[in-house]
Amino acid sequence: MKTTPSLLFCFFLLINFSMRGQELNAIVLDSLNQKPIPFASIYLKSGSGVVSNEEGRFRLQVDASETTDSLFISCMGYETLGLSLPQAKDSIFYLTPKAIELNSVILSNTQLDVKQILKEIQKDIPQKYELGLSKKKVFFRETGSQRFKSLGVKIKKTSIPEFNQGFWDATLSKVPRYNEWYFELLGNLSGDYTKESQKLELLRALELEDKEKSAIFENIEKLFDTLLKENVKTNSYFKVRSGIIGGKVEADEINSSAKDTLTAEQKIQKEKDDFLKWRKRVIRNLIVGLFDEDELDLTLLKKASKYTFTQTDFTYLGDTPVYILDFEPDGNADFKGKLFVDADRLALIRLEYKNIQNIRDFSLLGVSFKEDLREVVIQFKKTTSGKYSLEYLDINSSFEGGFDRPLVITEKNKVVKGRNKQNQLKMDLNVVNRNTQRYQLVVFETTPLDEDVFKALEEKGEILPVNKTTYDPEFWKNYSIIEPNTAIKAFRVEK
Fold first, then answer.
1. Are 322 and 316 in contact (CB under 8 A)?
2. Going by DSSP bridges, is the β-strand pair 245-250/236-242 parallel, antiparallel, or unpaired?
3. How far apart are CA 161 and CA 429, in angstroms?
4. What is the phi-psi region of residue 333: left when phi exceeds 0, alpha when psi lies from -120 to 50, beta otherwise?
């Protein structure tokens, strides 16, 4: 006999469920000037946490039934705010600047000069940072845009009628001159800081992108593929030349004739696996550059002789005294910024810098490349073990590339006797493209991982990103993420 739960039981069950999973969505402000505080650490006593975005906003999933848990908000130069979880109900949290007496002295260490501090930073790295195998709960966001400032082809000669001037004009007119996109994912990254020891489990992923614009590039590629199949002979190769610059490309590298033998289910799994590999490669490349065995692998520290470092001040992160070192180029170096160093352990806990000149800038014979923006923020947090682990990484860059030169593509055949030239396309190509890209990685939790457990982990693509054409505040409801900024919230695909 089936029994029906009482209405009262269902009511209490609903109450209990709603209490257990609550989302804290708020902003962190300076109590004196009311300005947002970016990159503040918001964390629970139980271990999980997030970082406020550049607008001071954050979102954190909490278990309200844990009445003994506490919420803490800290940032360099401010008093740490601590609240019991039941008290943390506001949408605005104020941090008070930490008062520091003039000419005060950090008593935890003998006063060191700047050169000594820089030297000590690189000592005893394994005792200062969690470098072993660990499981990191991460949230990753990629923001990007592409703008064609110039995109033109002038045909001078073609032996393939389909590749005439009208074809190129019609094709290039369909290419979007501007496109932007956002990718977000939540997952578990297991491993250490070496390239070989990284395994990623994806839990949820989102893409904000105009798929119609992406489809245009795919359709153009298919059109080229069809035309090549109809006009290019087997056993051919291509000579690509622009003035004195040239190269050789096999035809099968452009036009693969391999048969598609995958089932529909296998195609979906391959798509999932490829998505996992792609996202893992990007995240892995971000973190493996932080450490090289037993030292910080940061170009800025390795090329410290190219910069002038000055101890401008000190502050506190909670109760931890912190040296502040400003640096600027001593000669022709590229960056200007700040180092924040734990004065007790002499550990780097935050690095922020921005270029003050073009990082790369060359133009030769119609080929140009200019990287004119790179902003970096790297922030570590102290774990329960007393060591530091990565908390937040933010890399923002922009570059422009150009190609304004003649281009000749000649098809030649390996088996045809006599003159082996089959087809030729001569053109003047003019392309100027501006790209911007930003990577943000937040590590919510870091827990040690046994080597046997790590080896037993199997990587397999389980999900594909959900595509949306406008920002949906409900997608990440009940998940802790770095709060999207105004630009992401305003994203919309125009129809």
1. yes
2. antiparallel
3. 19
4. beta
Cα–Cα dist 467/210, whole Å: 9
* Overall residue count recorded for the chain in this entry: 495
Distance CA 271, CA 285 (A): 21
284-310 b/e with 16+ CB inside 10 Å = b?
Answer: bebbbebbeeeebebebbeebebbebe
Integer Cα distance of 190 and 187 in angstroms: 10
Alpha-carbon distance of 174 to 49, in angstroms, equals 45
Pairing of strands 49-51, 41-44: antiparallel
**What CATH number should be reported for the domain whose range is 18-99+478-495?**
2.60.40.1120
Per DSSP, the residues of 207-220 read EEE-HHHHHHHHHH
- pLDDT grade, residue 18 (50/70/90)? very low
- Classify the phi-psi angles of 478: left when phi > 0, otherwise alpha if psi is within -120 to 50, otherwise beta: left
Phi, psi angles (nearest 5°) of residue 480: -85, 125
List, in sequence order, every residue forming a beta bridge with 360; answer none if it has no partner: 371
The amino acid occupying position 219 is N
Other Cβ atoms within 10 Å of 266 Cβ, number: 10
CA 377 – CA 130 distance, rounded (Å)? 19
- DSSP 8-state assignment for residue 495: -
Q: For 260-288, how does the pLDDT look when each residue is reduced to its tens digit (9 = 90+)?
A: 688 999 999 999 999 999 999 999 999 98
The stretches of 319-458 forming alpha helices (DSSP H) are: 451-456
The encoded tokens of residue 375 equal 């902003």
| Domain edges within the chain | 18-99+478-495, 127-464
pTM: 0.84
The kind and range of the H/E element at 222 are helix 211-231
Q: Is the model's pLDDT at 29 over the cut of 70? A: yes
In one-letter notation, the amino acid at residue 78 is Y
User: φ, ψ for residue 169 (rounded to 5)?
Assistant: -65, -45
Write the DSSP symbol of residue 50.
Answer: E
The packing angle between helices 211-231 and 165-174, to 10°, is 160
Max CA-CA distance within the chain? Answer: 92
What's the pLDDT tens digit per position in 330-347?
988 999 999 999 999 999
- How far is the C-alpha of 327 from the C-alpha of 353, rounded, in Å? 9
Most confident among 134-143, 232-241, 381-390 (mean pLDDT) = 134-143
The alpha carbon torsion through 461, 467, 471, 473 (nearest 10 deg) reads -50
Residue 104 has pLDDT above 60, yes or no: no
